[in-house]
Amino acid sequence: MTIRYYIGNPMLPPWFQLPPREPSHDGYIDSGLVTRMHNGALLAYKVVRIHSLAISRGYSQTWSFEIYSSDTGEWSVKQVLPGPDPSTNPVTRIKTPNTVSLNGKLHWLDHTGRIIVHDFFSHDDQVRAISLPAGTQDERNLPSEKMICTTSQGYFVLIDAEQLQDNKSYDVRIWRLRCDSWSWEKAREINMDSLGLGRRCVPVAINCFDIDIIYLWDLDGNCFVACNLGTLTKSYGARKIVTIIHAPFRNPLDTRRTIYSEDVRCFQFQRCSFVSHFVPSLQVVPT
């Protein structure tokens, strides 16, 4: 089967087909798109595919990327080292090929729970490993205990939700990664009970333009909820009444006839999710 790649703006009709890949480049899987911008104008882009050994193997001496560059109009292969000192602090296999793209960099989560970063417009020959903020954990099993990696206001952002001992509500912490020092800065911390939201409202995303606005899925109301953590206000989207699916996690005691795709996402037992820019369609966004 021939795989074709197209580049385009989702808001505009023309799409352009990229040149075919080299037939000898086997074992690569799609990983992300990185761009170089200046004052809002696109200067260059690269399509990045990562070799499957970076996912399936416990440790590899090098990571291999297959890259299409708009500057050259060609596909090429780039080898990078898995960290500055692979002998003492190696980067193990990544958990998923899903990435967050920001400012020419791709971000992954590795098997030890670190954020792995590589700048595809630099001359670096190694990836960077960044530990998660203190107090965060990579594995929890409750829907309202999530860690979401995405971007907002030009930062790589981590949303960490931790259920409280009373089992009725949870705390949400918003962290942003400072690229000048590669350190975490806490932007917000809030108990969702102060907004009148319990553990059945599950965080799913953040506004890419305003780090104070997060989005949740209401498992009981079957709708999205937008919350402004700065003004402590919230607004509800329209109740969803479509998309009936079969879900393997469904509780036999659950009498609901409709299970939504958002429900499945909330109950997937992979605590850390990497999401792209995502803004649910809401009539009102709290200000």
Describe the structure concisely for a colleague.
The chain is mainly beta and 287 residues long. It contains 2 helices and 19 strands.
Characterization of this structure:
This is F-box protein At3g26010-like beta-propeller domain-containing protein. Residues 4-232 form the F-box protein At3g26010-like beta-propeller domain. It comes from Thlaspi arvense. This protein has 287 residues and is mainly beta. The chain has 2 domains: 6-131, no CATH class; 147-274, no CATH class. The protein contains 2 helices and 19 strands. A 5-stranded mixed sheet has the order 14-13-12-11-19, with no helix packed on it. The protein is globular.
Return the structural class. Answer: mainly beta
- Average the pLDDT over all residues and give the rounded result: 79
Helical amount among residues, as a percent range? under 10%
Cα end-to-end separation? 49 Å
Largest sheet: 5 strands, mixed
- Tell me what portion of residues adopts beta-strand conformation: 35-45%
